[in-house]
Every structure is written in C-alpha cells, then in structure tokens.
Write a structure and sequence with these properties.
The complex is a heterodimer of chains A (about 100) and B (about 325). Chain A is mostly helical and about 100 residues long. Helices cover about 75% and strands about 0% of the residues of chain A. Chain A has helices at about 5-50, 60-65, 70-85, 90-95. The longest helix of chain A has about 45 residues, at about 5-50. By secondary structure, chain B is of the alpha/beta class. Chain B is built from 10 helices and 8 strands. In chain B, strands 3-4-2-5-1-6-7-8 form an 8-stranded mixed sheet, sandwiched between helices. In chain B, strand 6 (about 215-220), helix 8 (about 225-240) and strand 7 (about 245-250) form a beta-alpha-beta unit. In chain B, helix 1 (about 15-30) crosses helix 10, helix 3 packs across helix 5 and helix 5 packs across helix 6. Chain B is elongated. The chains are: A mainly alpha (about 100), B alpha/beta (about 325). The interface of A and B includes residues 27, 52 and 72 of A.
C-alpha cells in the first residue's frame, strides 16, 4: 500500500467517524425532536377533527369524516397514542436524552 | 325580490301552506319556481296531492311550478357510502374495520342530520340556474336557524383545522433532513385540498344567504309563536341575516254582526283577541307584516291555495327592490 492510499483510507475513516459523531450528537436528536413536535401538532389536528372518538361531540365530525380515507394509518396510530399516553410530561420527556 | 326565499317559524303555524301558496303565486306570475321542503314531516305532497321525491318534479296542474322534498337520512347514507368507497380504494382492508367505527360515529352525531340538510341546501342553491325563484319551506325554527348560521361558524372552524394541518406538515418537512423523504408534504396534501374545498362551499353558502336570500317568518296570533319569532329574528340577525317580513296565519274570522249564537259569540271574542295580538305584533316587530291570513275551516288545497296566494303581499318580480 502506498503512502497515498493509506492517507486516502485514513481520511475516509475520519470522515465517517466525524459524520457519525455529528449525526449522533446533533442531527439525530434534533430530527427526532422536530418529528415528535410534528406528531404533537398532528395530534392536535386529529383531535380537532375527531373529538367524538373520545366522546366529545364535535359539530364538524360529519365533514371531517371525509378526511378519514387519507388519514387511516395516522388515525389508528393516533387513537392508540391517545389511549396509551400517560401524561403530557411523559411524552415531552421522551424528546430529551440525558 | 331575491332569488331564494325562506319561510320559517314555529311548528304548526302553517309554513307549508304559506310557502306553497307563495310558490303558486310566483309560478302564476310567470316565474319558474322550485318549492323545496326540508321539513322531515313532509306535507308538500298533501297540499298538491302528489308524491315528491329528492329531485325536482313538475307539479301536476300548475305551469312553471316544481317541487322536491329533501330527505336528510338518504343524504347521510349517501355521504357515508361515498367515504367508505373512497376508503376501500386507498386503504388495506385490515385497517378499514377500525376506521369504520369512526365513520359510523360521525354519521350518528346529532349534528350529522343538520350537516346533511345543509349540504343539500347548498346543492339546491348551486344547481338552481333553471329556476327564477327557489322557495324553502324549512323545518321548525330552532334547527333551521342554527343551520343558516352555520357557514360562518364552519368557515372559521375549517380555517383553524387548516392552520393546524399546515403547522404539522411543515414540521414533518423540516424533520426530513438531507435526502430523507418527508412523511407529509405541503404541496398537494389531500387533507388541505379537501378542507379548502369545504371552505369554498361554506363561503358560497354564506354569500348566497347574505346577498341573494330573503327570510320570512310565519306566525300565529298567539303568545308562544310571537315569542318564538322574536328569538328567531334575534338569531338570524346575529348571523347577519335580516328578516324581510312576517306573515300572520290562522287569524280567526269575524262573524256577521247579526249572528248571536254561542258559536258566533265565541268567534267574535276569538277574533277580538286575535286583533289585539295582531296589533301587538305590528307594534313589537320592526319587520313589516306582509300578509294576514284567516283561519280556514277546510284543508288548504286547490282553489283555496290560489286564494291564499293572492293574499300574500310579497313582491314576486325578480328584480324589484327588496324589502329588507
């Protein structure tokens, strides 16, 4: 192996490590945080649409039912999340890694 | 006169009679007229001795006159079936059952009936270019008035939903770093598209109700019906809709002065009470009394209907200045 090739291999390794470090420390946590935030916002939307799924009469559920075909997966997941969720703090806590 | 005319009032005051008579009058004045009954206990069929369905049908024996009876239950079923079929196109059958419950639920809530009725209202208004005049014989006060106040309320609700949806989709887009595909995308999001559609429908309904519709209240000379009319006017004006006039129905006739039997005495007294109430109505309401109709002994059909039609002093010419 020539010197040139060894330097090349080392640089590749370094780059991979650095990227991994960056991803683990910065990219992934913020990605996760934004996505959780997005899910929370989606939950609020779902609740405004389908409050009657939890026994709260909603004047617009007749109209929002039209959205169900496009929201099926989300709806099922949302319903499960809503029943499972212990508290708001627990959910918010998941967004931080200590 | 505005194109869409609504007759409302307490149950049993004679809305169907008045709207049928008015419809007949419009038709006789050469206007292509559609009479729409939205009362679940349809009685237009009884007035004209003819069965009407969910589509406009010519009324036998009268030129230019068409009638239809809206059936909200059928509309609810149709709406439900439409969603289900859209779903079976999109979704795996495994998940459908879970969602099905929600669809059932949404179509059984108390608001569903009103929403369906409202949809049909809008439908009729949208497809009314064949008619010069469309007359709505509405169901008793409460329900229909709430219905007419709906557009603005629903518009703001939909606005809020859209804002929420935008927020979450925007966050999903931001969460997709680098080459990762976003879970949801703002451009051609079917949800926002649907909500926009709905919003446009409500805007249309609101505009038509404010600009092209006239409202008349039918009442009887009795305290209950007067009170109810006060409330109705308050509700309507809260929704930005003015009442064009009042029609007082079932006023007791006055017997001839030489009649003195028990029946005649009773009737004379009734007539006087009704007169006093009529004066009270004229005093209490800002809206003009456009017709005073006498109580009839026989059922109102045929010639009698035509007779009443002549007594209703509501302008029928399409372009005459409006009364409200």
């Amino acid at each position: 192996m020539t010197l040139h090739e060894r330097i090349e291999a080392f640089r590749e390794l370094l780059e991979e490590w650095l990227h991994g470090l960056y991803h683990g420390m910065i990219e992934h946590p913020s990605f996760e945080k934004i996505e959780k935030e997005a899910e929370d916002a989606a939950d609020v939307f779902m609740f405004a649409c389908f409050a009657d799924a939890f026994g709260i009469p909603s004047p617009v559920s007749y109209y929002t039912a039209e959205l169900l075909p496009y929201l099926t997966d989300e709806f099922v997941a949302w319903e499960r999340r809503m029943w499972d969720r212990q508290s708001l703090i627990e959910r918010k806590g998941q967004q931080y890694h200590f | 006169m505005r194109k869409f005319v609504f007759f409302g009032g307490k149950g049993g005051v004679g809305k169907t009679t008045v709207s049928s008579a008015y419809g007949l009058r419009c038709a006789r004045d050469g206007l292509n007229t559609l009479l729409v009954s939205t009362d679940p206990a349809h009685s237009t069929s009884d007035v004209f001795d003819q069965r009407f369905g969910d589509e406009p049908e010519a009324v036998a024996g009268h030129d230019n006159l068409f009638a239809m009876e809206i059936d909200p239950d059928a509309e609810i079923k149709r709406h439900m079936a439409e969603i289900r079929s859209a779903m079976s196109d999109q979704v795996s059958p495994a998940i459908v059952n879970e969602i099905d419950r929600q669809i059932e639920l949404a179509h059984r809530t108390p608001g569903a009936y009103e929403a369906a009725l409202f949809d049909r209202f809008i439908d009729v208004m949208r497809n009314s270019e064949d008619y010069d005049r469309v007359i709505f014989d509405t169901s008793p006060t409460g329900g229909t008035l709430r219905l007419l106040a709906l557009p603005e309320f629903l518009e703001s609700w939909i606005d809020r939903l859209m804002a929420k949806r935008r927020e979450s989709v925007d966050l999903f887009e931001k969460a997709a770093i680098g080459d990762a595909e976003a879970r949801e995308k703002l451009a051609n999001d079917p949800i926002i598209e649907r909500l926009t559609d709905r919003k446009e429908t409500f805007e249309f309904a609101g505009r038509v109700l404010r600009e092209e519709a006239a409202f008349y209240l039918v009442l009887n000379p009795d305290d209950l019906s007067i009170e109810e009319s006060h409330r109705a006017i308050a509700d309507l004006s809260e929704a930005g809709l003015g009442v064009g006039g009042l029609i007082v129905n079932k006023v007791a006739p006055e017997p001839d002065p030489d009649e003195t039997g028990i029946g005649a005495t009773y009737l004379r007294e009734r007539h006087q009470t009704d007169r006093r109430r009529l004066d009270r109505i004229r005093e209490e309401f800002d809206e003009p009394v456009v017709a005073v109709l006498q109580q009839r002994v026989s059922e109102i059909k045929g010639d009698l209907l035509a007779e009443i039609a002549e007594e209703i002093a509501i302008e029928t010419a399409p372009d005459a200045p409006t009364t409200d």
